[in-house]
Amino acid sequence: MKVKITLLICALIGLAFKGSEFINFSYPSYFPAPVYKSADNTLSAEKIELGRLLFYDPILSKDNSVSCASCHSPYNAFAHTDHDLSHGIDDSIGTRNAPALFNLAWQNSFMWDGAIHNLDMQALAPVSHSKEMAETLENVLSKLNANQFYREAFYNAWKDSLATGEHFLKAIAQFQLTLVSTDSKYDKVQTGKEAFSFQEKEGLEVFNQHCNSCHQAPLFSTYEFANNGLPLDSTLNDFGRYGITQNPEDSLKFKIPSLRNLSYTYPYMHDGRFSTLHEVVNHYNTLIGSETSEEHLSEPLNLTSKNKADLVSFLLTLNDETFVFNPENKYPSKLLEANKK
Amino acid sequence: MSNFSGKLFIAFVLVSINVIGQNLQNDLLVDDFHSSIELKFRPEINRTPLVLNQSYYIPELKDSITIRKLKFYVSNISFYQSEEFIAQAEQRYFLFDLEDKKSMDRSIVLPNNAEFDNVKFNIGVDSTTQMKGAQGGDLDPMHGMYWSWQSGYVNFKLEGSAKSCPGRNHVFQFHIGGFQAPYNSLQNVHLSFDQKDELIIMLSLDTLFTQANITQDYKVMSPSERAIGFADQLPQIFNVKP
Most B CBs within 10 Å: which of A169, A174, A177, A247, as the mutation test of the B interface? Predict the structure, then answer.
C-alpha cells in the first residue's frame, strides 16, 4: 500500500510538470558536456518555437528587411554562401564572414574575435550593428509588443505576453541551442553505423597529424583563438582578438571554426578570402606570407597531392546532411500568420 | 486511504506555505519582521541639484556643461554597524536613471530593528553576474546599459555637451564599463552616516569634469585604460547628505 501511495504522489508531481514539455538536451556519448550557462533558461518546446520565429523574422531589423536567417541560412549550415563579408541592411557590407551556427552549446565565446561571452547576449550584436540590422533592442521589443501574434507567442513561451529583453534573448538562444550537428558520416562511424573508406582512413591520419590540434574531434574545433598565418588584408585591417583584449599576443588571432559541414559554409576564413577548400588546404600547405608564431604552423605542411586528396576525402565525412536539411530548423510556416495579425 | 488523504493535505499545506512565502519575498512586503529604508541618489553640480539639459558653469573649465544622460548601476548594498555586517539589500542590482525620477528613490527592505552606521556598495555589475546569460528586471539589456558589440554592462553612463569639447556637436560620452582583467571598472563605495529612515547620497559630478576629459578624452566607450582612469574617480563623488 505504502509503495502504491508513493508512486501515486510521484505521478501527481509528474503531472504538475507536464504542462509545458521540457526538452532534454541530447548529444552523443563521445561529445564533451555542453558549456552553455544561463541563469534559469530551461529549454521548452514553446520557447524554442518563439526563438525560431524571431530568428526568421525581419521584424528584428530597422526597416523589417533583414532577419538572422538572411546571413545564417539553414541550407548553408546557418552560414552565408557567396558572400565573403556579411551583407546587411541597405546592401551594407560588413568586415567579416558570417560564421556557421551549430553546436553552439559547446562554445563559450562568440564572433570571430570572441567579443560575446554568452549565447544569450549574442543576438544583440547583429540587431544593433549599423551594417547588419541597424535596430535597437528597445525598438524591436516595442514592435513585438504591438503585434498580437507575438504577444500570444511570448505568452505561450513565458506565461507573460510582454516581450522583455530577457525573454527575447533567451528565446533566440534556445532556438540556436537546438542547432546541433551530430549526424555526419564521421558520427555514423563513431556509432558503428558506417565505416570509413580506405581513402578516408588515410585522410584521417593526415588530419590527426596536422589539423586535430586546433580542429579537435568530435567538435572539430577547440573554439580557442589562433593566428593561422593569413597575412593581414590591408583593406580591412582586422586584428581580430587583439581588438578585444588589446594584448599584442592576440594580434591576428581569430576564433577557430569547426570543420563540420564545411561543404555548405564556403567561403572560408574570417574574411571569406578563400572560396574553395582547395585554396584552404593550399594555404596551410605553403603558408605564403605567414608570420604566425603558433608552433603547429611553424612550417608549411608540405603535403603530397595524394595526402591532400586523402585529407579532403576525410574532411567531406564531416558534412551533416541530416542537420542541414532538418525540417525543424527551417523557416517556420507559422511566421506567415505573424504578418496577418 | 485516509492515510493517503492525510498526506495529500499535508502536501497541500506545505505548497501553500511555500507559495505565500514566495509572494512575501517577491513583493518586498514590509511586515512585522521587516522595515524599509529609503535610498535616494541626488546628483548635483556646484552644490546645485542637477537638472538634465540645463547649463552649469564650471569655473575650473572656464566653460559651461550640460548633462543629457546619467545612468548607473549600484549593486550589493550592504549595511554595517562599524565593522560588523548587519544586512544586505535583497534586490542585488539597482539601475538609477536620472531621466526616470522613480528610479532615483528606492525602498530597501531590511530586518526590523537593524542598527547600522555605514554602508558599502558597488558601482556597476560584478563579474560573476556579468558572465550569466540574459537577465530581467534592472539588469534587462533593454534598459540600454548593455554593450552589444562586446558583451558587458555599462556600469556608469554620463553624456552631455560643453562648448570646449571638440566632439561632434560638442558632445562628450562616458560609457564606463568592462569587467575582465585588466580592465575591470567595478568600484566600491563605503560611506558612514547617522541612521535615519532615509539615506540620501549625493553625487558631486563637478570633479568628473577636467580639462583633459572635456577636450581630449571626451569619448570613452569601451573597456580600456581610459575607462579605468575614469572609473577610479567615481567613488569620491558619492557622499552622504548631512
Answer: A169
Interval B171-225: pLDDT, tens: 999 999 999 888 999 999 999 998 888 999 999 999 899 877 889 999 999 999 9
Q: How many A/B residue pairs have CB atoms within 8 Å?
A: 82
Residue of B nearest to A113 (CA): B150
Contact A117 B146 (CB under 8 A): no
Q: Could you give the angle at which helices A2-17 and B2-27 cross, rounded to 10 degrees? A: 30
Chain B within 8 Å of A127 (Cβ-Cβ)?
yes
Residue B149 contacts A where some CB pair is shorter than 8 Å? yes
**C-alpha to C-alpha distance for B1 and B165, rounded to whole angstroms:** 81
Tell me which chain B residues have a C-beta less than 8 angstroms from the C-beta of A136: 144
Rounded Cα–Cα distance for residues A149 and A151 (Å)? 6
Task: Render pLDDT for B30-78 as a digit per residue (tens, 0 to 9).
Answer: 677 888 899 999 999 999 999 999 999 999 899 999 999 999 999 999 9
**Phi-psi map region of A222: left, alpha, beta (phi>0 left; psi -120 to 50 alpha):** alpha
pLDDT on residue A15: 37
Give the domains, in start order, of chain A with CATH numbers: 43-181 (1.10.760.10), 185-319 (1.10.760.10)
pTM above 0.95, yes or no: no
User: Cβ B142–A170 below 8 Å, yes or no?
Assistant: no
Displacement of CA A41 from its chain's centroid (Å): 18
Which residues lie across from B202 on neighbouring strands? B42, B239
Helix (H, G, I), strand (E, B) or coil at B123: strand
Cell triple for A44: 521548452
Measured between alpha carbons, how far is A135 from A131 in angstroms, rounded to an integer? 10
My answer on whether omega of the bond before A267 falls inside 30° of 0, hence cis, is yes
Cis peptide before A218 (omega within 30 of 0): yes
Contacts of A37 in chain B (CB under 8 A): 131-133
C-alpha dihedral over B192, B194, B195, B200, to 10 degrees?
Answer: -70
Strand intervals (E) in chain B:
34-45, 48-49, 55-58, 63-81, 84-88, 93-97, 105-111, 118-123, 154-162, 171-177, 187-192, 198-204, 219-220, 238-240
The pLDDT, as a whole number, for residue A24 is 63
In this prediction, residue B52 carries a pLDDT of 97
Contact A246 B133 (CB under 8 A): no
Domain ranges of chain B: 1-32, 35-240
- pLDDT greater at residue A99 or residue B15: A99
User: A109: which residues sit within 8 A by CB, 6+ positions away?
Assistant: A115, A116, A117, A223, A255
Segments of chain A with pLDDT less than 70: 1-24, 39, 340-341
Half-sphere exposure of A144 (CA within 13 A, CB side): 31
How far, in Å, CA of B102 to CA of B71, rounded? 13
Cα nearest neighbour of B6 on chain A? A5
SS3 B229: helix
* C-alpha cell of residue A290: 605567414
Within 8 A of B150 by CB-CB distance, chain A residues are 115-116, 244
* Interface predicted TM-score (ipTM) of this complex, two decimals: 0.80
